[in-house]
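Sample intake — Phosphotriesterase
Collected from: Microbacterium aerolatum
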Amino acid sequence: MARSIPTFTGSVDEDALGVTLIHEHIFVTDPELDVNMPHPEWDEQAWIERAVQTLTSLYDHGARTVVDLTVIGLGRDVRRVAEVASRVPVQIVAATGCYAAEVLPPYFRLNGPGLVVDGPDPLLELFVGDIEQGIAGTGVRAGMIKVASDAGGLTPDASRVFAAAASAHLRTGVPITTHSHAASRGGIAQQDALERLGVPLDRVVIGHSGDSAELPYLRGLADRGSFLGFDRFGMENVGSDEDRIRMLLQLLDAGYADRIVLSHDAAVFSRVTPPSWRAAHTPKWTMTHLFERILPRLRAAGLDAATEHQLMVVNPRRVLAGAA
């Protein structure tokens, strides 16, 4: 029986997801800074128009679904994205979660079980509410949970986010994706924590795995059941596409085609890495890069149509909907 996946424009059958970019961002902002120190390159309506153009171009390249992993900590504004979603032919899946790789915002640090303001964990209330009722009163329900840890490992605050994500997953079945630090083999600790919390690891994407050039590390993550996020194509400031392609081909040769998802971690606009910086340092870091450059190179290296379909259609569907 086919399962239903929530999007900004309503739920769709899993078989309608099609070619899916599993890890992208539409707008990454900072609401507090935006009020007090507006970014000179930000013009809301102009960037909404740019987003409409970008996502329409993605459809022309064959993409049918984009997962927007912009969550609390990255300036999520679902009303703004909903305006874009209403005008484009691709489906957009929203995410819940909290991007707090080291330290939570003060409200979450002080509110929760055993804290200064004792009571239910607002992180869990946020995640479950976003999934079951909808985000910020919009009715747009989240289809993925995003968590993060970085070079500092699973700090106490990051661990609390992972625990809330695990509880939300166990209650709702919505999959978990991570921001991981590949250089320190951070996916291992993430898997350990989520497994200890009762999350089946085949419902987890270890994000940014493609930043690693250590084949044993990547095979180990996949052997435990998780999906490997080769999700930063074009992000040359943290690693080369040459290395990503090389590692991807090695994993495919080793039989891991069913454990890999491809994407860019790109944004139409990001305050953190603004357009002028991207144009100078990462000019290929766009949501069309896979279609324009990477997939043609993989095909030239022997990627067949069935494996490409597995990477771009079947695996993202399995992430979002679960195994058949």
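Post-analysis note: The first strand starts at residue 4 and ends at 5.
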